[in-house]
């Protein structure tokens, strides 16, 4: 091939002045198959191997004089400007352009580019950061300050600007300027981390009093009461005082916190921190008073951590055995009495197990779990098993998370699955938890086997969805297709499954398969949410810009239902389709809808259609069309009808509103009668007004 190319290049060069010669194509003499055949697999393997080969670097371009350099700059700038002109909103093009100018030390041009980019999108955080970093990199400090000021003024809620600004000022040694920026930031009442950054800044310069004043502002006035009413902020303040050996101040902060939260909003973390502080100060009696005060007022379910710390304290400095024996033994005895009285009281078992898990060893916990799960519900009805199944779930989670025994966890799941009567009912959450456990153990075949067994024994929507979600996360799309096919064979009326299947095919780029799935779905004789399915199909065709197919879909849907929302949606689609005669098409749809709904018994739907039509004409129509739609609007009248009770007796009269449409010929006499009634009422009102003012009549007669 190379030799032929060289000869062809020589011929073309030799005949440059004359007519160009067309080379002759060599004829294949031997058309028999080659002895060694190359398979498609070999071609793919060779292509994959050649991917790893490194491409040669591009040739270096050497610029020898100023003219070449200017030519190079002109070409690059033209390329960048063309890219920007194609799509102004792609900020990366602006940044690359500015960085290229910066690399040429054209700082003024780079500034101009950044300013143009900010005019396009001033909310882009990256743009501001790159702009300011360029100025700082080139030691243009005042320019950088100007940019940061503009950034925090324009986007004050972007914390990154404030952090960068304060860091720059601190690196420049301008501590007062950095403090001033922090103060401006605090006026916006930022998040918690910003306040701590300010405090740490002051501590770096040994300004303890300033840090304390910031804590006071943060806790009492502008932060705790308004923005951050949280216990941990008081604790951090107290630990700050303790760290700097201001123990009296720390104790005062804790006391103020207890007084502030009161008994209505007590938090165990505050009392635990207070007690540990007093413990560090060797004030053991104060620690006991704090713990007892908190335990008497905080509900037991919210004081587990408090009780745990109290027992640890007593273990170190007091009689731990007495407290543990009295409290734990008393509660354990109560739970034992409850489960003996009613072994199927699963709530009592849950409380008992929670107590045992918090204080006993693993073997004791397993023994109580085995006793609990032995109480199988006597009736095979799912409502009786709903609480019982959570005993198995908690048992498996305890073995996995607390005991770290994966083998026993697998045995617990398998025993529970064997116990369930799958022919009558099952629990999808149990199968899914088992499969997720096997995935955490990196045992994917067992997880798939468990889910496949569940679908074979007791198929449920939740099981199919869980299995499909697993395969989607693993990017096994062929398996997802098969699962969707099985799912739809099991529940063909489930519209959500059809839609998800079609969306999967759309994401994979197989538009024809997605369209075929939608066609199969709308052809099903029974669907749970057909309106959702049709809407999804129509939206799919609109996204593919298949407007003719979308119109056909609307026509097919209107053959099945004449609902007013379908007509309105069809008209709005024609309005947004982008055709030149879109207004005429939209008006024609409204005309068809109005004709089709004349025989509709639901007059409110017809009124809704006319209201939508009038809105369209108000926006796009002429005076003639507006006058025409106003003539089509109905008259709203009040009527009475007789009610009957269930036994057939008279239940009185009921008032209701009815609509009379001018188009309906049967309603023409009613409209004439209504007009005459209005005229009569007007005459009556005028006569009553004349009777009320006789002097006016005399004056008028004299005149």
TrEMBL record:
GO biological process: spliceosomal complex assembly
Cellular compartments per GO CC: nuclear speck; post-mRNA release spliceosomal complex; precatalytic spliceosome; Prp19 complex; U2-type catalytic step 2 spliceosome
Matching SMART domains: HAT (SM00386)
Cellular localization per UniProt: Nucleus speckle
Any coiled-coil regions, as ranges: 540-606
Alphabetized Pfam families for the sequence: HAT_Syf1_CNRKL1_C
Matches recorded under InterPro entries: HAT (IPR003107), HAT_Syf1_CNRKL1_C (IPR055430), Syf1-like (IPR045075), TPR-like_helical_dom_sf (IPR011990)
Chief location: nucleus
Annotated spans, Disordered: 1-28, 684-703
Family the UniProt entry places it in: Belongs to the crooked-neck family.
PANTHER family: CROOKED NECK-LIKE PROTEIN 1, PRE-MRNA SPLICING FACTOR
Protein's name according to its UniProt entry: Crooked neck-like protein 1
Species name: Onychorhynchus coronatus
């Amino acid at each position: 091939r190379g030799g032929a190319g060289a000869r062809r290049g020589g011929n073309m060069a030799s005949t440059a002045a004359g007519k160009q010669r067309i080379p002759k194509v060599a004829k294949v003499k031997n058309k028999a198959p080659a002895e060694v055949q190359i398979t498609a697999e070999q071609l793919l393997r060779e292509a994959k191997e050649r991917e790893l080969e490194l491409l040669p670097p591009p040739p270096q371009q050497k610029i020898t004089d100023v003219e070449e350099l200017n030519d190079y700059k002109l070409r690059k700038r033209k390329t960048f400007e063309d890219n920007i002109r194609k799509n102004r909103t792609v900020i990366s093009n602006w940044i690359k352009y500015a960085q290229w100018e910066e690399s040429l030390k054209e700082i003024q041009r780079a500034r101009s580019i950044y300013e143009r980019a900010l005019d396009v999108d001033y909310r882009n955080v990256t743009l501001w950061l790159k702009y300011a970093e360029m100025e700082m990199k080139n030691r243009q400090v005042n320019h950088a300050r100007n940019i940061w000021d503009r950034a925090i003024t324009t986007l004050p809620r972007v914390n990154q600007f404030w952090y960068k600004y304060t860091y720059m000022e601190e690196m420049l040694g301008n501590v007062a300027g950095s403090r001033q920026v922090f103060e401006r930031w605090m006026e916006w009442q930022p998040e918690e981390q910003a306040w701590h950054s300010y405090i740490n800044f002051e501590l770096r310069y040994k300004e303890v009093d300033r840090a304390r004043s910031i804590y006071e502002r943060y806790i009492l006035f502008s932060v705790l009461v308004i923005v951050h009413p949280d216990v941990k902020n008081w604790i951090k303040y107290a630990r700050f005082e303790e760290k700097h050996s201001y123990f009296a101040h720390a104790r005062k902060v804790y006391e103020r916190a207890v007084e502030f939260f009161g008994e209505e909003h007590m938090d165990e973390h505050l009392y635990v921190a207070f007690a540990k502080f007093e413990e560090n100060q060797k004030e053991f009696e104060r620690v006991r008073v704090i713990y007892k005060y908190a335990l008497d007022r905080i509900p037991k379910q919210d004081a587990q951590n408090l009780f745990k710390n109290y027992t640890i304290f007593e273990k170190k400095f007091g009689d731990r055995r007495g407290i543990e024996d009295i409290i734990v033994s008393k509660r354990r005895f109560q739970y034992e009495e409850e489960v003996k009285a009613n072994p199927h009281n699963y709530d009592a078992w849950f409380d008992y197990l929670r107590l045992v898990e918090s204080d006993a060893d693993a073997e004791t916990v397993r023994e109580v779990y085995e006793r609990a799960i032995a109480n199988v519900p006597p009736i095979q009805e799912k409502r009786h098993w709903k609480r019982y199944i959570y005993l198995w779930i908690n048992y498996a989670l305890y073995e996995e998370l607390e005991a770290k025994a994966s083998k026993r966890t697998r045995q617990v799941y398998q025993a529970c699955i064997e116990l369930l009567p799958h022919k009558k009912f099952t629990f999808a959450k149990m199968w899914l938890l088992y499969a997720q456990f096997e995935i955490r153990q990196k045992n994917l075949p067992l997880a798939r086997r468990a889910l496949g067994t569940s679908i074979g024994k007791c198929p449920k929507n939740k099981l199919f969805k869980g299995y499909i979600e697993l395969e989607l996360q693993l990017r096994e799309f062929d398996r997802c297709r098969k699962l969707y096919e099985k799912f739809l064979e099991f529940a063909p009326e489930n519209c959500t499954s059809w839609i998800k299947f079609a969306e999967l095919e759309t994401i994979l780029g197989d538009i024809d398969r997605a369209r075929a799935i939608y066609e199969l779905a709308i052809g099903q004789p029974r669907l749970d949410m057909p309106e959702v399915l049709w809407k999804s199909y129509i939206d799919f065709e609109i996204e593919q810009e298949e407007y003719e197919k979308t119109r056909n879909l609307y026509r097919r849907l209107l053959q099945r239902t004449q609902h007013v929302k379908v007509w309105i949606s069809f008209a709005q689609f024609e309005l947004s389709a982008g055709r030149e005669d879109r207004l005429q098409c939209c008006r024609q749809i409204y005309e068809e809808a109005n004709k089709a709904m004349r025989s509709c018994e639901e007059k409110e739907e017809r009124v809704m259609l006319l209201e939508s039509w009038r809105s369209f004409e108000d926006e796009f129509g002429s005076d003639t069309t507006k006058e025409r739609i106003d003539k089509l609007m109905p008259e709203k009248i009040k009527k009475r009808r007789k009610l009957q009770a269930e036994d057939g007796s008279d239940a009185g009269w009921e008032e209701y509103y009815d609509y009379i449409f001018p188009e309906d010929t049967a309603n023409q006499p009613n409209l004439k009668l209504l007009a005459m009634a209005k005229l009569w009422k007007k005459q009556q009102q005028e006569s009553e007004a004349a009777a009320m003012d006789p002097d006016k009549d005399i004056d008028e007669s004299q005149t």
